[in-house]
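Please decode residue identities from the backbone states below.
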């Protein structure tokens, strides 16, 4: 088992580490939030946790109506993973999504979330009818679109994060040691590894939320 782990690429290892750390942190925070007294004001870090979750739930509810409780856990979990993964370099880890294999695996997860949710909420026959809109002749095109969309989202993440690493490497190699250290630490690193990482995570979260809402036709089922 140890040999298998050692043979993994740094990006795969970082993905495993990020997942384990998130599981532990969220489990601890969840227990602390569960013990909160709703009649007392929330203070400290837990206030930020409750505020963040409440804000994201409100955002998801705008797209999914009364169905938001079905999809909020998976959507927020994906957002938190992406934020942690895209900023993993801050802790000396390889950025997971800069590996094409991780990006493709994430695309498969997004594809399954969209399609399985669509089948459960809309039912198989209605889902098939949705894919034949506005004409049955467009069924092959719509199927290709359903398959390509999540993969394009994953590859977009991969390209943006990889480009940040490439730019940082180029800047470091073009400048002398002192200048390179200053530029990568003060300018390039915060912009690409922190700012762009968080922005890309939120953009992916919003796109997945929108495409999921389209798949389950939230406007038609939110009142059910």
């Amino acid at each position: 088992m140890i040999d298998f782990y050692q043979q993994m690429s740094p990006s795969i290892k970082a993905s495993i580490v990020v997942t384990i750390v998130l599981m532990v942190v969220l489990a601890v925070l969840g227990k602390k939030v569960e013990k909160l007294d709703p009649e007392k004001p929330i203070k400290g870090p837990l206030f930020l946790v409750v505020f963040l979750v409440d804000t994201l739930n409100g955002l998801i509810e705008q797209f999914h109506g009364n169905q938001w409780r079905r999809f909020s856990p998976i959507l927020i979990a994906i957002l938190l993973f992406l934020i942690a993964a895209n900023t993993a370099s801050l802790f000396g880890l390889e950025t997971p999504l800069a590996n094409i294999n991780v990006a493709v695996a994430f695309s498969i997860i997004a594809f399954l979330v969209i399609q399985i949710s669509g089948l459960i909420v809309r039912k198989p026959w209605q889902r098939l009818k949705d894919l034949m809109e506005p004409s049955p002749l467009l069924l092959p095109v719509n199927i290709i679109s359903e398959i390509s969309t999540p993969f394009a989202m994953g590859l977009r993440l991969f390209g943006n994060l990889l480009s940040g690493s490439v730019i940082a490497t180029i800047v470091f190699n073009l400048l002398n040691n002192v200048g390179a250290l200053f530029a990568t630490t003060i300018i390039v690193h915060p912009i690409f590894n922190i700012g762009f990482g968080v922005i890309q995570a939120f953009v992916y979260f919003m796109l997945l939320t929108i495409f999921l809402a389209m798949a389950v036709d939230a406007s038609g089922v939110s009142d059910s």
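Observation: The chain is about 80% helix and 0% strand.
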